[in-house]
Amino acid sequence: xxxxxxxxxxxxxxxxxxxxxxxxxxxxxxxxxxxxxxxxxxxxxxxxxxxxxxxxxxxxxxxxxxxxxxxxxxxxxxxxxxxxxxxxxxxxxxxxxxxxxxxxxxxxxxxxxxxxxxxxxxxxxxxxxxxxxxxxxxxxxxxxxxxxxxxxxxxxxxxxxxxxxxxxxxxxxxxxxxxxxxxxxxxxxxxxxxxxxxxxxxxxxxxxxxxxxxxxxxxxxxxxxxxxxxxxxxxxxxxxxxxxxxxxxxxxxxxxxxxxxxxxxxxxxxxxxxxxxxxxxxxxxxxxxxxxxxxxxxxxxxxxxxxxxxxxxxxxxxxxxxxxxxxxxxxxxxxxxxxxxxxxxxxxxxxxxxxxxxxxxxxxxxxxxxxxxxxxxxxxxxxxxxxxxxxxxxxxxxxxxxxxxxxxxxxxxxxxxxxxxxxxxxxxxxxxxxxxxxxxxxxxxxxxxxxxxxxxxxxxxxxxxxxxxxxxxxxxxxxxxxxxxxxxxxxxxxxxxxxxxxxxxxxxxxxxxxxxxxxxxxxxxxxxxxxxxxxxxxxxxxxxxxxxxxxxxxxxxxxxxxxxxxxxxxxxxxxxxxxxxxxxxxxxxxxxxxxxxxxxxxxxxxxxxxxxxxxxxxxxxxxxxxxxxxxxxxxxxxxxxxxxxxxxxxxxxxxxxxxxxxxxxxxxxxxxxxxxxxxxxxxxxxxxxxxxxxxxxxxxxxxxxxxxxxxxxxxxxxxxxxxxxxxxxxxxxxxxxxxxxxxxxxxxxxxxxxxxxxxxxxxxxxxxxxxxxxxxxxxxxxxxxxxxxxxxxxxxxxxxxxxxxxxxxxxxxxxxxxxxxxxxxxxxxxxxxxxxxxxxxxxxxxxxxxxxxxxxxxxxxxxxxxxxxxxxxxxxxxxxxxxxxxxxxxxxxxxxxxxxxxxxxxxxxxxxxxxxxxxxxxxxxxxxxxxxxxxxxxxxxxxxxxxxxxxxxxxxxxxxxxxxxxxxxxxxxxxxxxxxxxxxxxxxxxxxxxxxxxxxxxxxxxxxxxxxxxxxxxxxxxxxxxxxxxxxxxxxxxxxxxxxxxxxxxxxxxxxxxxxxxxxxxxxxxxxxxxxxxxxxxxxxxxxxxxxxxxxxxxxxxxxxxxxxxxxxxxxxxxxxxxxxxxxxxxxxxxxxxxxxxxxxxxxxxxxxxxxxxxxxxxxxxxxxxxxxxxxxxxxxxxxxxxxxxxxx
Length: 1193
Hints:
Its main location: membrane. It is built from 40 helices and 36 strands.
């Protein structure tokens, strides 16, 4: 396999299965749950067509991720469209338009709805068609399936059935969930890539049962038959409980034998597998649920405005109907006709004075149709199109492109663009989000002696914070040390400098034997895979985590090179203490007890060449130190001190320890461990942990490691800008408190002089109760302690409310458990919201999600979660906006996010620039939509009032229909995509501008109603100026007066001009596109009136040649339009000028700076910028300001 590329991989037939012991023994029936609830699936391997299999009627392997089918598209899509109240209203109005009640033709009423619904359904259809194309491609993939007599033929994935035997070859995807039967290797292992499932890039090893490992070729399956009984389909990717009956033997099955659909076979020529789960029963499809539906606050508020307009519309129709009923009734009194010209004595029911109440009710229905132009029918379509185009701008922003990994920003949904401009609180992971998740071995403590002279970013920040002169000394020391080792190239993952133990000098140290055991443990206790470079012979490693890679590399650099792993051994090149030469040593690998988040440690059991049994263990200090034997604590106090120092320096620590095992002890453990691993029960992992717990005791301490996870570039600057923007920043991390605090200082979340409120359960009383093992008493005392600490913290906040002191809240995971309980969480939130920054340490993934939910629901403000790992998924989905960092920990966070970015620092531009722009654009666009519809709808209402509420429309049917679709929609769309109140440079230079979104000043009810009032004013001016100007005098040279058709056309021209000029006035940033769509919309109206008026009278009705023969030749028409347009925009222009000059908003102040050329005047800009710095903010700018204040005092 190595001959095809530069790298040569070791033979994978010799790679250790991380489970070590294969589940090949007969199982104890007492432990079985098979056949019980949740464990009822039966698979007849290599006999999928048998009678029993047919009775089970399992799903086929066809997979569909589409929302619709050809049959369901029309009904389901229409249902989705008419779930919106506005669309349902227009449908009812369209249906009523086919009755005699309609004030216009049915076609003109229904066509705009058809256009809008068709456009939206087309968008849905195209998206679903793309999904269908992807599904078709997947379902039509080919795989080899056993047809009988040892013959394998290609078939499409969709044709597979449960029980089929398939042959999957190298670099192919698994077509269903398969039970691994064998591979081309004797020990039946294979290498699997699961990136499509969990985003993890490291490869996983799988291994078949011994009983099926001999099925090496196609002919082996001629007579093969087996029955698998296992769990029912479920979404858990990491568990599988089952058993196999083969040749009257019973074998237990584990996740080690399960190959999941959509994972890929790597570095293995082929495998044979039995199909266990197909199609939507597979684990990947069970996990394929839609992400939680998120709607922005602006969109939700828009729905409320629509409901408000519905109320106004019904009120207008109701009032108009009452007036109409009264007037109609008075038309005929005692046989006398008041309005004789209407002939009320010989009329229909719609105008009959004798049946006035019925006429009023019928008029109410007519008015509902006539006033529907208050509701902007094209709003939602324009809304969605604008958001999609905004997302394209975000995706193509070069300032958020990370060249190193070739990853641009990616808006995975466009629903939340404007929400980016309203974020109040950011909840951030630390590792891989604020830091690089690229670990470097920096320091260690061995036998109570600290080694390593490196200086961390945190130590430099601490030195700056304290104003320490040692900073230069540290720098000189590093430079000197670096100079002494510059002859050696830097190694990724290894930044250790200490001449005492480097280059083999550790053999001269007083505790050389302990150092030897320490380094040997680093080289053996891991799950890494060694790879040999074909050209240079150098060894590199594939590890499950960056920490693990750093440890193996450190062992290699210090003389213990791990170079080979087989099924039963680990081989090292070791530095011999006596001779000083490299020697090969092999260790028989007996068991690996894997790391998990509950155990917080990992162990291996090996036998050395002298025959000694050794247990090597590494893990978190919180679980390791309590497992030390009495004679194994020689260096405990010194090691604790060193670990505290490392934590203060922002380093991640692990404790290393070992013990020797007796043969009897190991034999007893082996029996129990094997039984636990072979258990076919839901609590299998618990049983394994319990067995491991017994042997991982009486350990002898060797020392501790310290690795650095460096801050990402630009993190402190980004946090500083976000803090100046008034955004609160919370850090939710799994690290210990000291590490998190010092990272907080390094990235300016914390500063000197900021008072820290620390909530933990480290009091002596709590610890004493924990030793008593009285769980009820511990719980009660712990909760009481947390409540007391929260109350004390709130008292501190209250006491300093009038001072400029700022607080930081720091709480650990154990305390957070109690703080999030229903009767405590509101107190905790009240305290946390009053603090400038919050750090939650030792947080579990569930706690991260719960804290996010508490902040979101408790404050009612927009939250943003940002993380990079699978443990952040809950937080991202719970937050209003989830940002995934496409970093080292795979793509699971990205796949669950709303927007993906490559580096934390890009959050600054995403929020302060794109967030502000999108919020302002969408808010203004919606306000403008309501303005133009109110302006148009009120003219219709006023004309109907002018005609005694007779139901007479002011405009031609098609004028009414095309207003929202053709003459005013594009300028609003251009505004929603292109407008900028302030350039990107000024958005970042003056971050307080962002608060306009947080405080929702651009989409408040006051602003919305203000725009509607502006529309009302415009409508009144248009209507009364037109009617008064055209009422009596001759309109043309021939003395002709104005009829309803000419009045309607003139008013319509004025409306189109006014709303488009209004758009031009309200824009802050003109582009060629906006000029084209604004003036093009006006031109479009004139072209339409010419074309439509030229049609035959039976089509153009009362618009026939009106513009061509009546309006355009009349100078009074053009003068009136000019005069009305100027008069209608004067109120808004005057209001804007006054507010801009005397009561400017923050963005208008910045526009003044730009306009007057003061952007380079540092004194003036600083005066404006000072409004963005408050005593409670964090960041280095606030730190400098705090220092300046203290010096002034």
